[in-house]
Structure formats: structure tokens, C-alpha cells
Amino acid sequence: MGARQRKERRRRAAERRQRDEPWLSRRSVHITIAATVVTIIGIGVGLVALFGGQGATSQRGSSPPARAVVQLRPRTNNAVVPKSVGQLSQPPRYPVSDRGNQCHIWWQHWFDTQGAAEAQTNPTIEIRAPARAPVTVTAATIDVFRSYEPRYRLFINCVAGAGPSPGTLLSVNLERPNARPTIVADDGRDQPLALPDAVISVERGRTEEVAVNPSGARRMYEWGVTLTLVVDQRTQTVTFGSRQHPLRSWLGDIPHDSFDYDFESQSWKQLR
Question: Of 105, 116, 124, 142, which has fewest CB within 10 angstroms of its CB?
């Protein structure tokens, strides 16, 4: 083979190497990337198996925090209404079987529209402790949104035999809303509601009724109360009464004029 032929063969071999190197280079890069992706996926699956499984187990083993069920007992008693007879609207009808015991129907909505307050009874709060934890009421705060002396006062007699509110007595002063509410302690004395001695305790799974007993001047009060509870070492607050939907209390004498509504004549009838 002459020198010229050898030179031509070397040139062709160099050209083949130049054509093959980019393909080999790209193939090597693809293989490297694929191997890296597989490695990352494998690490991710391992981490999910390690930590994700532990998290799922912990979540299944946990339980929601215990909470007390706190609600205002429905109102069912007679009412004092700060209006004259002519200002009263017609109350809702009720079944004949509820005659003389229709207050609970009128308290569902109508009495509130008349600005009425329950007569001779106190707002009563029911506190039901969860099955696995007791409840401790550690504080109560009062907000007075409005107080006034109404020009007119009527006694609406819609139930017979209404008695005092049951349960633990929580006394509040609506003339001095910043004063700490009091309860009757074990020694029979009124003491401010505070830890550790003067608190309201509800055993686990039990229900306690707290009658909020307001005092103040001879006025109509619109107000609210907030209770602070400790349940299973967690604090829970519950509020009853707001500026738009307040609790109402008349702290004066019960009016002498007593009325009930006669649907046959569609008029208010004086009872005494």
C-alpha cells in the first residue's frame, strides 16, 4: 500500500470518529440523566416509606381535642315587654293543646322582636363535659351594650307555675360590669369566680346548669356574658349575647298589668 493510500485511510477513519463522537456523547448524557432520575425516585420512595408511614400512624393514633358542649337553655317563662298594649304586634299562633303554656313558642322569635326580658328567671347556661375530661369554668366577663328605663312595661302571662332557675348561681352586676362575677363557695359565702378555690367544676360526662343572676338598677339591660373554660388542659371560651342579639333583663318590679292574646277577638286581654 502506497503512502497516498495510507493517508487517505487515516483521513476516512478520522471522519468516522468525528461523526460517531457526538452520538456517543449524547448517549452517555442520556444514560447519566436516566440513572440520576432513578436514584432520586428511589430516595424519594424511601423517604416516603420512612417518614410518611410514621406520620400516618401517628395521625391514626391521635384523637381530636376534647371540648365541652355549652348552650343557652331555651327560654320558656313569662315576659316583661317594654311597650304599651297598642305597640304590641300579634304573636304567633300555637296549638290549642299549648294554651296556657305557649311561652316557649313566643320565645322562639317573637318576644325578641318586642325587646322582651324573661320575668322572674335568669339566663341559664348548660355545660356538658366530654366523656374523657372534666370541665372547669375559671372566669366570666360581662358586656353591657345598653341600659334604659322604659316608659311602658307590660307583663305577658303565657305560662303558669314558672319557678326559679336551677343550677349553680353565677352573680353578675350589670351596673358594674367590670366587677368580677361571684359564685357561692363551699363555705356558703359569695366569692369572686377565680382559680383555684372559687370555680365551677363539671365532672367528666356530666352536665351542670349555671344560672346567671344579674343585679343592677331598676332598668332594662341588654348585655352578654363570656365564660372561660378549661377542658383537658385547653382553654375554651363561649359567649352568649351580642349587641345585635343581646340577653335582656328587667331588674325592676313586675308590672301589675298582665296580658294574654285572644286570637278569637285578635286583641290583647288584660288578666288582672
Answer: 105
Q: Count of domains in the chain?
A: 2
Average pLDDT of 169-178? 94
Q: In which domain, by residue range, is 2 found? A: 1-62
**Are 110 and 58 members of one domain?**
no
Residue 76 and residue 186 in one domain: yes
218: CB partners within 8 A, 6+ apart: 149, 251, 252, 253
Looking at per-residue confidence, does 13 or 125 come out higher? 125
